[in-house]
UniProtKB/TrEMBL annotation:
Substrate binds at residues 8, 30, 58-67, 117, 177, 186, 206-207. Pathway: Pyrimidine metabolism; UMP biosynthesis via de novo pathway; UMP from orotate: step 2/2. This is Orotidine 5'-phosphate decarboxylase. The lineage of its organism: Bacteria, Pseudomonadati, Campylobacterota, Epsilonproteobacteria, Campylobacterales. It holds the Pfam family OMPdecase. One of its GO terms (molecular function) is orotidine-5'-phosphate decarboxylase activity. PANTHER family: OROTIDINE 5'-PHOSPHATE DECARBOXYLASE (PTHR32119).
Amino acid sequence: MRLCVALDMASREENLALASELKGLDLWLKVGLRSYLRDGAKFIEELKGLGNFKIFLDLKLYDIPNTMADAAEVVSKIGVDMINVHASAGERAMKTVMDRLAGLGSRPLVLAVSALTSFSESEFDAVYNDTIARAVRKFSQMSFEAGLDGMVCSVFESKFIKDVTNEKFITLCPGIRPFGESAGDQKRVANLVSAKQEGSDFIVVGRPIYENANPREICERILVNI
């Protein structure tokens, strides 16, 4: 299991300061929509210049197939190590993305978002007219068939996804509260014990790290536990 630290703070300077504090640790950094829209590709270069970090660019691409492929190609060329798309864009869109990226010399890992961890069961049903479990099964199988590398999902779907696809199909799990911290705006959260039991390959941790008085220390505690 690998730790991915979410750089979700309000300014570029705060995010860079956090990354600097974590230099030398064996972890990934997640750059989300707000940070990328504000700070752009140059921010990715700055992070890579700080140390040997792997970068997950969390933009959740969702559009018509060719536009998704265009966007995936552009962000792949800036040197990120993992990107994601929405599985609900459909199998044709995901295949179009993977076909496009196959033409590059090297490509990032590509994961699909199943159900956002902020969704409750009733909220998910109001949008998708389905249960989370049934939709995750469908989205996961579709993504696997399209040639993606894995899924973004809650911890509670990780083992299930591997059962309906392949043990090597990556699961990246946000909504992690490593030592029982507050859930905040997440609905389906889990701790490190659950993440390990459910076979999560990556865990994404944000607030419990950057709101801690000593972010490096909490990262070290997490790394020891995983």
